[in-house]
Amino acid sequence: MAGLKIHGLAKSYRDVRVLENIDLDIASGEFFTLLGPSGCGKTTLLRTIAGFQHQDRGEIIVNGERIDHKPAHKRDIGMVFQDYAVFPHLTVAENVAFGLKARSLPKAEIESRVAESLAMVRLDGYQNRLPAEMSGGQQQRIGLARAMAIRPTLLLMDEPLSNLDAKLRIELREDIRDIQRRLGITTIYVTHDQEEALAVSDRICVMNKGNVEQIGTPFEIYRKPQRRFAAAFVGTMNFLPGRMQGGQLTVGSHSVPFPHGVGTGSVEVAIRPENVLLTGASADGEAIALRGEVRKVTFLGREAHYTLSTEAGEIVAQVADPDRDFIEMEGRPVEVRLPLQKVVLFQSNGDVLSAGRP
Ligand SMILES: Nc1ncnc2c1ncn2[C@@H]1O[C@H](COP(=O)(O)OP(=O)(O)OP(=O)(O)O)[C@@H](O)[C@H]1O
C-alpha cells in the first residue's frame, strides 16, 4: 500500500489561482478528506492527483515515485464520482469488469474479481441488471465496486454521496468506511459536508480559496481549530468580541485571568453551543460569566437550542435532554457561562491564540 506526498502544487485557470501552494503528506492506508466550501479547489486538487488535468507546478509522489508526468490511465488510481458515471448500456457486472478488460486480464480472473467486488459492496445477485433498474445508492455501489476491482494504489472519491438522500448517505458512508478499513486502501475523499468528513476520516484537510487552512484528526479539527475559518466552517461556533490585557481576558463586563494568552489587543472568543452553560449548570474550573436573555428556544427532542442575547453579543447554546421548565424560557433573563477550558481564542488575523486553556 502506498502513501501520497504533494509538494508545492499550484494550478490556475487562465489568470485565476485555484490551488495556491498545496503540501500534503498522506500515510499509507489513511482515509484523508478534503473539506471546504464550494469553489475552494477540492475537485481541482483531486482531478490533478488523478491526472485528468495538469498542475502548473509542484510534485505528486506515490510510494516515493513521481506520478505527475504519467497519463491518468497509468496512475493506478480508482475514482468514484458524484454522478456515479456508470455506463447505462452495460450490465452491473460489465460495468465492474470495464477496467479489468481494459487491462486485458484473463477471463477467469475478471469473473472472480467482479464477483469479489460486487460482494464487497453487497450487490451480489445483481450482476445482470442494468443501472437504470437500480437505485441511486446501488448505482454508487457499482461505481465503488468498479473502482476497487482494479485493486488501485489510491482510491479517490469526489462527493460520492451528494446525490443521495440523508438516510442512504449515512448508510453508504459507513459501508465505504468499513471497506476502506478492511482493505487498508489509501483514500482521498472530497466533501463539503462537515458531518460526513468528521464521521469517516482519519484526518481532514480544511481548504479555503485554494489554500490549506488546517490538517488534523476530526477531534483536532472540531475541538482545537487552528484557524478561525476551520472553527466557523466545521460545526457551529459562537464568536464574541473580547480583549486581552495584562493577562486578563475581558468579555462584556466580565474579566478573568487568562495567563496563557499573553499579549494585548482585540481577540475573538469562540465557543461551541454544547459548551455554553445556562443558569444552574455546574462548571468545572473558571468561566466567563455574562448576563443574557433567552430570545428563542427550539426544542428538538433529545436537545434544545437557545438563542441568547448577551451583553457581549448573540450566541447559541445547546442543552441536552432539557426538562420542561427549561423549554419555557423565552423572554426570561439567564446567566450564561463560558468555561475557559472550552474557549478558543483567535487573533484578528484568524490565527488561534489559545485552544482550550491547559
Ligand atoms: N475548467 C475550468 N475552467 C475555469 N475555471 C474552473 C474550471 N474548473 C474549475 N474552475 C474554477 O476553479 C475554482 C475551484 O473549483 P473546484 O471545482 O476545484 O472547487 P470545489 O472546491 O471542488 O467546489 P465544488 O464543491 O463546488 O465542486 C472554482 O472557482 C471554479 O469555478
UniProtKB/TrEMBL annotation:
Keywords: ATP-binding, Nucleotide-binding, Transport. InterPro entries: AAA+_ATPase, ABC_SmlMolc_Importer, ABC_transporter-like_ATP-bd, ABC_transporter-like_CS, Mo/tungstate-bd_C_term_dom, NA-bd_OB-fold, P-loop_NTPase, Transp-assoc_OB_typ2. One of its GO terms (molecular function) is ATP binding. Transmembrane segments: none annotated. SUPFAM superfamilies: MOP-like (SSF50331), P-loop containing nucleoside triphosphate hydrolases (SSF52540). It comes from the Bacteria. GO terms for biological process: quaternary ammonium group transport. GO terms for cellular component: ATP-binding cassette (ABC) transporter complex. Coiled coil: none annotated. SMART domains: AAA (SM00382). Residues 4-234 form the ABC transporter domain. Belongs to the ABC transporter superfamily. PANTHER family: SPERMIDINE/PUTRESCINE IMPORT ATP-BINDING PROTEIN POTA, SPERMIDINE_PUTRESCINE IMPORT ATP-BINDING PROTEIN POTA. This is Iron(III) transport system ATP-binding protein.
